[in-house]
Design goal:
Blueprint lengths: L4 E5 L3 H12 L3 E6 L2 H7 L5 E4 L5 H6 L7 E4 L5 H14 L3 E5 L3 H9 L4 E3 L1 H14 L3 E6 L4 E7 L9 H4 L1 H5 L2 E7 L2 E4 L12 E7 H12 L1
Parallel strand pairs: 1-2, 1-4, 2-3, 4-5, 5-6
Antiparallel strand pairs: 7-8, 8-11, 9-10, 9-11
């Protein structure tokens, strides 16, 4: 079932960005932060925003944190507070807990205490930007796991007018084009007969090595 109610602990740049986007997506969002100025800034954006210490179990109980589908611990400047808040959300029975980690050690601790998903915003953004700098056709790059990647890349001039059968990314590199975003709309699960046009956006999935090999082939 899709999560629709979120409690966000920490309303800095990362937490506030997530909160704003979730509200845009039609979700109910409770923001919690010790900084009154940050809470005031988002009070008319989020569904609810409260000034509170999320490392206090009674405080989290009083704001009804246990009733939310997902808890997001977005605290970045205080690792101890981040870990305590995550522990409390888990103990209160929040179904899914996601937390931001600022170091690998911080992330390992969060994983050990049962956090469902650990996010490394700075590291992940660095990886994505590096790949985009090396591959001009690459629009986005997301690691699904340590081995698998999904990438969005623009179709270069060298592939203009070619069918997927002719390009044959699966046969040549082992990766698959799972969608093509064209000006007239998106093609999901394209067939071998679908033709690529320059500036189309391909959504490609495969291992990191397969994606890199495919990128290299279309850079030439």
């Amino acid at each position: 079932m899709r999560a629709t109610q979120f409690v966000i602990i920490g309303l800095g740049r990362f937490g506030s960005s997530i909160g704003r986007e979730l509200v845009e997506l039609g979700c109910e969002v409770l923001g919690v932060d010790r900084d009154e100025e940050k809470v005031q800034e988002l009070s008319e954006v989020l569904t609810h925003a409260v000034v509170a210490d999320a490392t206090d179990e009674e405080v989290l109980r009083s704001v009804g944190a246990r009733n939310f589908d997902c808890g997001v611990v977005a605290i970045g400047d205080d690792i101890q507070a981040s870990i305590l808040a995550a522990i409390l959300l888990k103990e209160l029975g929040v179904k899914k807990v996601v937390a931001k980690a600022v170091t690998e050690l911080h992330g390992r601790v969060l994983e050990r205490i049962g956090v469902d998903r650990v996010i490394y915003p700075e590291r992940d953004m660095g990886i994505r930007v590096a790949h985009q700098l090396v591959s001009p056709n690459l629009l986005d790059y997301i690691e699904l796991s340590k081995r698998y990647t999904i990438a969005e890349m623009t179709v270069p001039a060298c592939l203009n007018g070619k069918s997927l059968a002719a390009v044959n990314p699966r046969g040549r590199f082992g990766c698959s084009v799972v969608a093509i975003n064209k000006t007239k709309g998106i093609v999901i699960a394209p067939t071998a007969d679908d033709v690529l046009t320059e500036k189309d956006v391909m959504v490609v999935i495969g291992t990191n090595e397969q994606i890199e090999q495919f990128q290299e082939s279309i850079r030439r």
